[in-house]
Design a protein that fits this description.
mainly alpha, 3-stranded antiparallel beta sheet, 420 residues, elongated, 5% strand, 2 domains, 61% helix
Length: 420
């Protein structure tokens, strides 16, 4: 069957006066119906092609990327598939010294960019780039012999060229920072959902807003990079670990508080201090449990990896809530800890102002007022709305209008492509 398919392709090439000399042809037979698929590879131009009309779009080679109009941009997508082919079939081929010099220059450029920019669009982290150069030096003398060496070089080039395509390398309005959006934001929430999120955000001490802004910076136009995602997840895990520890302290304080004589009385209704302490304990336990679950989720599901995170975020955005639901979930340990502290202060205050003399109540009242004023002042300043990068976004919009670049509205991610 493979020989029959090859004969058909040869006849097709002859009928359209196309020469396959020096080209490779990959034939795949899949499915119960023995469906035949193919593509051809041309090494001098680093491209893959077909003998029939094949429309490139976001469902195949463009990988859910919209607005690709220039041929030079499409060439990057096709070249990325070419290097994927070399990675899959590294045997019996020669990689020239020019290719090795090209990837070395690319790595050096990426390292320099990482040193001068905190929002680099480089697809590798700084530590990975540091390890790649010595590895490339060791491969240089033997890459012509072992196919595994060719595989690694092809894998590096595939990642770099693919990153160029996603960032619109060489095009008007190219992405210069990993938190810069190329398209008009399509993740607009309806009025009902916005009201729900706003209400919950205030109930959770505006913590979801912080996580939502961070998610919008690391998840830009349905894309995630290792450089931005891994520090984000690392910071989250560190934050949750600290919140779990603080919640444990509050829970322990509540247990000790309930043991104070006068807080819990036998054979009598629960006091106000006792009720508030119970609420504080429950909130602290909730913060501990949710924090542990979130940390375990990141570790067991591999969400610290950008590829796994891409699948996770894509599935999440197909729901009605999207990033807002994730922002609320990530903020729950912090919010429950704050509520636990509020309830504990209320329990302490109710115990202090009940059954004490006037001078004690006045003294404690003054302290409560001063400390409360400082707390509310800090909260007010932290809730102040800020719009970072506003000037930068305005400049980008002006450049876009001058270049008459069309703005593409992305209505949602398409189904991820299968490697050709």
């Amino acid at each position: 069957m493979v020989l029959d398919a090859a004969a058909k392709l040869h006849n097709l090439a002859v009928s359209i006066n196309a020469s396959l000399a020096g080209c490779e042809t990959v034939i795949e037979i899949s499915g119960s119906r023995k469906k035949i698929g193919y593509y051809c590879v041309h090494h001098p131009t680093r491209t893959i092609f077909w003998l029939e009309e094949f429309k490139l779009n976001g469902k195949n080679v463009f990988e859910r990327t919209c607005g690709v109009e220039a041929l030079s941009q499409a060439k990057n997508a096709v070249e990325a598939q070419y290097w994927k082919h070399i990675e899959l079939y590294p045997n019996d081929r020669c990689l020239s010294q020019e290719i090795v010099d090209e990837i070395r220059e690319t790595i050096l450029h990426s390292r320099a960019e990482m040193l001068t920019s905190s929002t680099s669009i480089t697809p590798f982290t700084e530590d990975e780039l540091k390890d790649m150069l010595p590895l490339l030096g060791m491969l240089q003398g033997i890459f012509g012999i072992y196919m595994t060496c060719k595989l690694q070089i092809a894998r590096f080039l595939h990642t770099f060229v693919r990153s160029r395509f996603f960032n619109f390398y060489g095009q008007f309005g190219a992405r210069l920072d990993n938190d810069q959006a190329l398209y008009q934001d399509s993740d607009q929430c309806d009025a009902k959902l916005t009201r729900i999120f706003t209400g919950l955000s205030y109930a959770l001490f505006r913590a979801p807003n912080v996580h939502l802004r961070t998610l919008q910076r690391v998840w830009v136009n349905n894309q995630i990079t290792q450089v931005s995602w891994r520090p984000f997840i690392k910071q989250l895990n560190t934050e949750w670990a600290e919140l779990i520890l603080n919640s444990t302290v509050i829970m322990t304080a509540n247990v000790a508080f309930l043991a104070i004589p006068g807080v819990t009385t036998a054979n009598s209704p629960s006091t106000i201090a006792q009720i508030f302490s119970y609420a504080s304990t429950v909130a602290s336990i909730g913060a501990i449990v949710i924090g542990l679950l979130l940390v375990r989720q990141n570790r067991t599901k591999g969400i610290d990896d950008a590829n796994e995170a891409l699948s996770f975020m894509t599935a999440l955005l197909n729901t009605n809530f999207g990033k807002e639901a994730l922002a609320i979930m990530y903020s729950l340990p912090y919010a429950l800890l704050i509520w636990g502290m509020v309830f504990f202060v209320a329990a302490l205050g109710s115990l202090t102002f009940k059954g004490t003399d006037k001078s004690t109540r006045v003294s404690i009242g003054v302290v409560f007022f001063l400390v409360g004023s400082l707390v509310f002042w800090c909260v007010f300043n932290s809730w102040e709305q800020r719009t970072p990068r506003k000037e930068h976004d305005r400049n980008v919009n002006e450049m876009t209008e001058q270049s008459k670049l069309k703005t593409v509205v992305v209505h949602g991610p398409s189904k991820p492509m299968q490697t050709v």
